[in-house]
Amino acid sequence: MFIAILLFIIAGLAEIGGGYLVWLWLKESKPLWYGIIGSIILIVYGIIPTLQSFPSFGRVYAAYGGVFILLALFWGWLVDKKTPDFYDWVGAAVCVIGVSIILCAPRN
């Protein structure tokens, strides 16, 4: 389970970081190389979830979605300096509970 969580975190950082660089290029007039590097990181992000050992694409991405939400809040807080409010944290907690159910539920 440690490797699965680590891969989710790496994928999330790649998706958010790559997307953030593209955002900076398009929305804040940063140089073109921001967009190029961001796009390359987003391609790498697309590969990372395939390293998961789970056999179901849908479950992997559903679980990843919850982790992504939590990482996005932390990114906004630490990088973008936008402090999450109470409802952001409650929503993220609900997502993490959902991820736990998806990943840890006993299945045949």
From TrEMBL:
One of its GO terms (cellular component) is plasma membrane. Coiled coil: none annotated. The keyword Chloroplast does not apply. It holds the Pfam family UPF0060. It is a multi-pass membrane protein. The chain crosses the membrane at residues 5-26, 32-48, 60-80, 86-105. This is Uncharacterized protein. Keywords: Cell membrane, Membrane, Transmembrane, Transmembrane helix. It comes from Paenibacillus ferrarius.
